[in-house]
Amino acid sequence: MKKIALVSAIALASITAAHAAPTVYGKVFLTADYTDTNYDDNYLVNKGTTSAPNWVNPQDESAFKLNSNQSRIGFKGEDDLTDTTKLVYQLEYGIDVDADTNNGKGQFYSRNTYVGLAHNTLGTVLAGRHDTPLKLVQNKVDVFNDSLFDMANAGVSGENRANNTLAYQSPAIVGMPVSFMAATALSETDTDGDVLVTAKTEAVKNADGTIKTPEKPAVYRDRKVKDNGYSLSLAYDQNGIYLGGAYDKDMGANNVNTGVIDNTWRLVAGLDMGKMNMVPGLTLGALYQQSQYYDNYSIVNNNRVNKASEDEKSWLISGKYKITDTPWAVKAQYVNTTDEKGVKDNDVNEIAVGGEYAFNKATTGHIYAGQISRDNNKDDLIVGTGIEYKF
């Protein structure tokens, strides 16, 4: 029996060594935020009632809220297949610390989740659900990432995580600090068709038969749902200088062919002044991008009438300074988006300042304040504080 137990123990140890347990990781980022919202006088919402007036200007509001900011838990690991190739995998799920649902997604919802092959010199191939190369190329220029002042909340599109993704990440190109990433998001369908944006509304008549409200035709958007999406990026990173560029086509909002964006291109620059032997602790960032949305159209008297979308343009500048010999860092960011979602004159401006206090390598305290202004909509003044713990 002792020999059998010894053999079993050796076999178990061999299996454990050959198949390493996955690494458990994640973060909890919880903030307490005060938001004061003021609606523009010309911004109206439908009450959804039959009593007049149907369209009203919303009441200004203010509130304190707890917010879970991209909190997550994940499992990742690798397993050697040959001397040069290994299997890699990751299962990552978002979790709301302050509630049991997140916009109808449930308590746990998929983030970057994939399986793939990594080669010592040829790079890595992944399959599953993953951030697009265009999203990843922003690197760390968004100094308020994963917060209420995340650049995505200021109208910057393209922050997509696509389903049904096949992706390739190159190693640094030999002799140059340049890397390349490409991904395609498979539509998994094979039919063309148009998307109904707004249904047709019949004319409303007065008691005497005259027209009170004229008929409005249905509004459609072109969509070839059999097309796959793709995303490409190229990045240079050396001696404190980061330069990146990327392009998306039909990557959608959360899945290929679900958004209204036709294509997006993005340029990014970052400077680490400490690594450049200039100002220790100071980093600067900038981003510019342009998104083209699909046009809408109606059929009037058997003729197609197009309503062209505007090109959405966004730019960002940011800075962060780690104060020498202290646990403090300060940061600031400005974001501007014109013609958000392709709608003319729907402009967004964000200005934010904040501070970070590093209690240790895993725990960081946050304080911040700023404003996000949307033309023809509302202004949000936000002041908040919170704690972020990574494991």
Brief descriptors of the model:
single chain, 391 residues, mainly beta, Porin, 2 helices, globular
What distance separates the N and C termini? 42 Å
Oligomeric grouping of the chains: single chain
Overall tally of domains: 1
Shape category: globular
At the first level of CATH, what is the class? Mainly Beta
The order of strands across the largest sheet is 1-5-6-8-9-10-11-16-17-18-19-22-23-24-25-26
Helix content: under 10%
Specify the number of helices. Answer: 2
**Gyration radius from CA atoms, angstroms:** 25 Å
Content of β-strand: over 45%
CATH architecture type: Beta Barrel
Number of strands: 26
Low-confidence stretches are 1-17, 253-259
- CATH-level-4 superfamily name: Porin
Backbone structural class: mainly beta
Order of helices and strands: HEEEEEEEEEHEEEEEEEEEEEEEEEEE
Annotated CATH topology: Porin
Structure description:
With 391 residues, the chain is mainly beta. It has one domain (21-390): Beta Barrel (Porin). It is built from 2 helices and 26 strands. The chain has a 16-stranded antiparallel β-barrel with strand order 1-5-6-8-9-10-11-16-17-18-19-22-23-24-25-26. Strands 12-15-20-21 form a 4-stranded antiparallel sheet, with no helix packed on it. A two-stranded antiparallel sheet has the order 2-3. A hairpin with an 8-residue loop joins strand 10 and strand 11. The longest helix is centred in the first third of the chain and has 17 residues, at 2-18. The two termini are 42 Å apart. Residues 1-17 and 253-259 have low confidence and may be disordered.
